[in-house]
Amino acid sequence: MHTGCAECTLGSRLYTGAVRIVFAGTPEPALPSLRRLIDSPHHDVVAVVTRPDAAAGRRAKPSPSPVAQLALDHGVPVLRPPRPNSDEFITELTELAPECCAVVAYGALLSEPLLAVPTHGWVNLHFSLLPAWRGAAPVQAAIAAGDAVTGATTFQIEPALDSGPVYGVVTETIQPTDTAGDLLERLAVSGAVLLDRTLDGIADGSLTPVQQPADGVTIAPKITVDGARVRWDLPAHIVERHIRAVTPNPGAWTMIGDLRVKLGPVTVDDTAETLAPGLIRIERDGVRVGTASAPVVLGRIQPPGKKPMSAADWARGARLDEAAQAQ
Length: 327
Fold this sequence. Notes:
alpha+beta, Rossmann fold, single chain, 17 strands, elongated, 2 domains, Methionyl-tRNA Fmet Formyltransferase, Chain A, domain 2, 4-stranded antiparallel beta sheet
């Protein structure tokens, strides 16, 4: 298995012509990859596949996905199949005659008939070091688990979840203050280079995928809004990592009285007096909440219907009593 930075994992290649690529992706983390492939002289992005337009904003008006918008801006045809495994879409994709399909956070499982359409199959850029953290939320899982290093992997898609043979990887150190948003932003950029180089190697025949090891498989399921709720009965370092892992999406939250408030990253205060789990203390140097070990100092809070604010500003107007509890 290849390791190292994306720029050195896979070397530069020689080409006789552009490779016909169909790109499948939906959210913003897929944009660096799509942009790089569109700009590459080695690849001809003949179409983009993305999820159907979804409601966005206060008026809930359907809007194109970030990937769809970038494709439209560059004049690339956009396909939005409501059922990508349908016979109709398989026929449509077959008519495009792609040599390879590149996938970054598309958001749908693909059937064997669809996977068989492109000559060189479907290549996925996944934001973990497979076989660790297969699934929908690998970046969040790596932060929550306290991993020191993560990365991105390019692999050949099989019907099973993220189990296909690996072409290459790029590694990334997880910084102590990284949120999932911070880490994913870096991985999206370095992963775009890796995906580009992977497609180069597939095109000229210099890359052969390697089967994933059977050991070390971990699963990272999608994090629900309920799953993003803070559990103050856990140790402080678990609470701190959990909050970073679900920032910005779906966003950490807790109940204070009958109000549901969103929380930004916190810091662990090992020097402070311990507090009962969930007990809130407003002090001159910060707002602390008890956990199963040391208290944590709150950073930013967003009460219902208001913009995010510092915990100190929130505390001045909150009028909490001595028994105030986060739950």
